[in-house]
Amino acid sequence: MPVDLSIHYHCQDCRIHSRLLQRRAAALLRECRVADHGLSILLVDDQEISWLNEHYRHKSGPTNVLSFPFADGADTSLSLLPVKELGDIVISIDTALRESKEFKLSLHDRLTWLITHGLLHLLGYDHELSEADAILMQDKEQELLTRLQHSRSTAMTHLAINVDHIATIRQARGGVEPDPVAAAAICEMAGASGIVVHLREDRRHIIDRDIRLLRETVKTKLNLEMGANKEMIGIALDLKPDMVTLVPEKRQELTTEGGLDVLSQKKMLAKAIDKMRKAGIPVSLFVDPDTRQIKAAHEIGATFVEIHTGRYCDAADEKGRDQEFKIIATSAEEAYQMGLRVYAGHGLNYQTTARIAALDTIEELSIGHAIIARAAFSGLDRAVRDMLAIIQEANRIG
Ligand code: PXP
Known about the structure:
single chain; TIM Barrel; four-stranded mixed β-sheet; binds pyridoxine-5'-phosphate
């Protein structure tokens, strides 16, 4: 559910970054596990909050924040309506500005504190009831603010690079160049947070020698993509990559065509995940943006899901792309709510990545073809940095 933010305030010497506040409020709703509820935030001046304070609380003068729960004191039939609303938080910018100076905080950090405080009131916390209640609320506030600092809404989306395509060029001549191991090092130096390689049963690009050397040389994170078959599970247990991504694998396909059908293979995949877990290797399942598949992935103990972005990238027109984007956004949110860590990838390029990177719930993108294709013209270092710049910008304004 969206966070509705309205500003009844004319700032002369301050700028309110409403999207930043909305993102932080949405992250707080997720942390409190009420992301399926609507929340309205109203930013006003001292005069307006004084009026509300007088009218509803019979207290004179301005205050920093007021909370109005949705059904508080109103017609009880409201609770029967098919809507999930937490209520309204009203904040005075004038008071927040004074307090930000007093506490030596940025205005937005003070506003974030006030949103947190107001939200906890809406959720039933009340520091005015007793000393114990005050401590409880203060502790919760602190916990939420600490978690927000480390939450995905503020951390940059990671970029992991799939270097299979370098190996494809090498295999075209059956020689030793270009080397995916060298490519991985260049990607890392350019700022990639991880390296992904798909060891296929037919060894059409990445070969066993590559994964052995990559295990020794990758400094960030080695993600071994593979089918969940006996041979590959044995290799993974031996190699101990930082994580594995299980994908469906067909010999005839040019590239991974769709997500895993987790539902129909729950038992087999659960066994594979269990073996990896015992060896300390977290598992990601590559799935279509489909609630049932994501739920199944969660049920069988996956740590991550990687959401397939192929249909979004391949959409024939903008309308279709918008529809696919919404499906991905909803699925990512659902996966996040279940406690899964969420990655996304397949087919992302320099045009389609920004929207996906702006989604708070997605931690990492896995991109290969577009970056390696651009590298042929601009060099690998440049191609990685250009993609990182897109992600960084999307994170800044998302
Ligand atoms: N994620 C998975 C699971 C994949 O199989 C691939 C393709 O190897 C990618 C991401 C990267 O896709 P692309 O090469 O289209 O960027």
